[in-house]
Amino acid sequence: MANRLAASTSPYLLQHADNPVDWHEWGDAAFDRARADDKPVLLSIGYSACHWCHVMAHESFENPAVAAVMNRDFVNVKVDREERPDVDAVYMDAVQAMTGRGGWPLTVFLTPDAEPFYGGTYFPPVARHGMPGFLDLLGAIAEAWRTRRDDVTRGTRRLVEALHRSAALAPSDEVPSAAGVADAAVRIAATFDAVEGGFGGAPKFPQAPVLGFLLGRAARTRDRALLDRVTLTLGAMARGGLRDHLGGGFHRYCVDERWAVPHFEKMLYDNAQLARVYVEAWQLTGIAWLREVAEETLDYVLRELVDPSGALHAAQDADTPAGEGAYFAWTAREVEAVLDPATAAATRAWYGITDGGNFEAGTTVLATRRRVETVAADLGIPEAELRARVATAREALWRVRANRVAPTTDTKLLVDWNGLAIDALARAGTALGRPDYLSAAVRAAEAVLRLAGPAEDLAHSWKDGRRGAPGFAEDHGAFAGACVTLYEATFDPRWLGHAADVADAAVARFADPGGGFFQIGPRHAPLIVRPMAWVDGAMPSANALLADALWRLGALLADDRYTGLADQAVRRGWPLAQRAPSSLGALLAAADARAAGTREIAVVGPASRGAADLLDAVRGRYLPGTVVAAAERVDADAARRVPLLRHRAMAGGRATAYVCRQGACQLPVTDASALSAQLGAPWTAAASARLWPDDTATG
After folding, report:
1. Could you tell me which of 319, 411, 317 has the C-alpha nearest to residue 83?
2. Model confidence pLDDT, tens digit, residues 505-526
3. CA gap 293, 411 in Å, rounded
4. Which residues of the chain have pLDDT under 70?
5. ω before 105 within 30° of 0 (cis)?
6. Are 49 and 120 in contact (CB under 8 A)?
7. CATH number, domain 4-167
8. What are phi and psi of 14, to 5 degrees?
9. 3-state secondary structure 251-265
10. How many CB atoms lie within 10 A of CB 522?
């Protein structure tokens, strides 16, 4: 018999709708029940594509004996972290404070007043590897609650007080400096893995906010060492098992330091952020392979994650009925059954497919860890022949894989994740000359406004005709930033209007007088702590997203109110960014932009008078910290809607570009080469940036 979760729209909660556990959704009813029955609350948080969430569900939540204990001794609450990031943020902080680590599934025991007193992540059904068995843990917690209540709850008040202190940083008047940003970059670089790329050891995550910060820093300072770290990491991730070499797109993370074996879920936010970084790295270096990876990633998103509405689905699962990774991994025998012997040999050598495999049951997760010239030499064939055989094999293996049972797709719309994807598609559309990407970005943004909007009243999610919780700060930051990017890609002023509406709502609901933004506002039910997100998780923090959007919006609208709020947010987060730079890459990128000053480019005139050439000169370059406005002519209405265009006119009957930085403008130019000169000489040395561990850095 289905439990209460059967009425949910969340794909994750619906995965648990047939559990024998008497689950509640998060809300007053669950805690009223806990108080009435004098029971602790067992809070379980996860998401639909999470492999270990599925494992714990199969081992414990589908087990009638375990469920009987849960139902007898606890009030059980299940939360989809993607639909309720506010609840997840509070209790993830609590578990990290208690244990020093976190992750999903997140398992937390609460008092009936929602105060945490014990927690962890995955618990096996029986004790192993130093972890207590879940059934034993349930018994111990229930016994302590009945017989030693004071001992159980003694630390809860101190923990909640600590969460309050960490949730809201003290206001700061310290101004982010170029020297401070440079020091943060050096400290992050010190954690770099010079052999395999990435930062730290296993498990390895893409860390797109950090990569974006370092890439922008390298572009501004022409720091070759930073560029090498970014490009080597981008190369290692794209060559390794993190990337789906047949279907495109990236998995969530790798369990090893060599990027060989991933957890196989594919998340919209990862693919959106990584596509943007690869596009920008291509703009900076001109390395064709970076562009190819970006396009394959976005092609995957548009092929497999687009909803009929035009919005983008959240994720694809790690598991299928055949097991984790079975959809993506290959045995040597499977390859040889599909291909002729010569092509099979080339394919095995190129993708590293061995008889023993590198994954479960002798299967191999595809990777391209060796150079094409090395593989071709080993096979004794020309490089062109190797490439042709691999291309043939890729198409054949793709057709075979299409007949396997595919991972399920989480079809909910999340506004913040859609915002990141819209931003990436719009940037790629203009930078790569892909109008299909730009059209997809516009269609997705219109769907968000239609389904989860309007702009001034965003919801966080939408599924099956129902809007979810009111929008959080990260929804407003990501979607406002996406609308600004759409304006810069289309020069349709309506997108600036939408961005301003979203920004105004964010300021009204989330702004703190001391600077920065809370995650939740007056439309949300209160939690034991009102979180203020500074640290990047899998995606940039809410404060970093809002700071970036407000700065860009303020520059285009010539509105100091927006830029001042962005400045206050970055100032407040700056002390934490200095203490833990690897955790605040997105805020550091905003601080770097603040220290350098925003560059403003205005182009006036029709395409027939040279405007297209001027815009191509801008869009072909990676120009962090730059905003762009354009119009065929600047009449009173255009000047009102886009104040950056005020007092701009064509010179000599030709389209004209104006380049300014913080109110200081260079001479207007009508020639694309002159505009390029004002933007600075291209960094030609970047074309030899490191993509392989044995590349020698020069320059």
Report:
1. 411
2. 999 999 999 999 999 999 999 9
3. 25
4. 1, 684-685, 687-688, 694-699
5. yes
6. no
7. 3.40.30.10
8. -65, -25
9. CCEECCCCCCCEECC
10. 9
Structure tokens at 357: 């495999």
Right CATH number for 180-321+409-599 from 1.50.10.10, 1.10.10.2840, 1.10.10.10, 1.10.533.10?
A: 1.50.10.10
From residue 135, give the alpha-carbon distance in Å to each of 15, 59, 69, 189, 302.
21, 11, 8, 44, 44
Q: Which of 600, 621, 601 is nearest to 683 (CA)?
A: 621
Which CA distances in Å does 332 have to 243, 337, 341? Answer: 20, 9, 12
Helices (H) and strands (E) in the chain, counts: 27, 16
Residue 70 carries which side chain, given as an amino acid letter? M
Residue 10, token pair as written in the block: 């969340």
Alpha carbon distances (Å) from 537 to 170, 515, 526, 540:
21, 21, 22, 6
Q: Is the dihedral of CA 691, 695, 697, 699 positive or negative?
A: negative
Cα–Cα distance for residue pair 603/78, rounded to 1 Å: 52
Please give the single-letter amino acid code of residue 311: A
Where are the chain's structural domains? 4-167, 180-321+409-599, 332-401, 600-685
DSSP reduced 3-state for 5: helix
> Can you say whether the dihedral through the CA atoms of 375, 378, 379, 380 is positive or negative?
positive
Q: Which two tokens stand for residue 522?
A: 């007056």
**Residue in the block written with tokens 């600047």:** 634
Closest CA to 483 of 420, 429, 544, 538: 420
Phi, psi at residue 467, to the nearest 5°? -80, 145
**Residue 539: Cβ within 10 Å count:** 24
Q: Report the chain's terminal Cα–Cα distance, integer Å.
A: 68
CA atoms of 569 and 517, how far apart (whole Å): 7
Write out the two tokens for 556.
């285009």
Distance CA 350, CA 342 (A): 12
What is the rounded distance in angstroms from the CA atom of residue 153 to the CA atom of residue 670? Answer: 71
pTM: 0.95
Those residues whose C-beta lies under 8 Å from the C-beta of residue 269, and which sit 6 or more positions away, are 416, 417, 420, 421, 538, 539
Closest to 207 in 3D by CA, of 252, 148, 244: 252
Q: Which amino acid is at 189?
A: A
* CA pair distance 546, 562, nearest whole angstrom: 10
Residue type (1 letter), 68: A
What is 600-685's CATH topology?
A: Glutaredoxin (3.40.30)
Cα–Cα distance measured from residue 89 to residue 110, given in angstroms and rounded to the nearest whole number = 15
* Burial group, residue 289, by CB count within 10 angstroms (0-12, 13-18, 19+): middle
Tokens coding 601: 């480019």
The predicted-structure confidence for 17-59, as pLDDT tens digits, reads as follows: 999 999 999 999 999 999 999 999 999 999 998 989 999 999 9
Q: Are 220 and 592 in contact (CB under 8 A)?
A: yes
CB environment 665-680: b (16+ within 10 A), e (fewer)? eeebbbbbebbbebbe
The sheet carrying 313-316 orders its strands as 266-267, 313-316, 409-414, 461-463, 466-467
Pull the structure tokens for residue 480. Answer: 């406002």
What does DSSP say about strands 41-46 and 75-80: parallel, antiparallel, or unpaired? parallel
**CATH topology agreement for domains 4-167 and 600-685:** yes
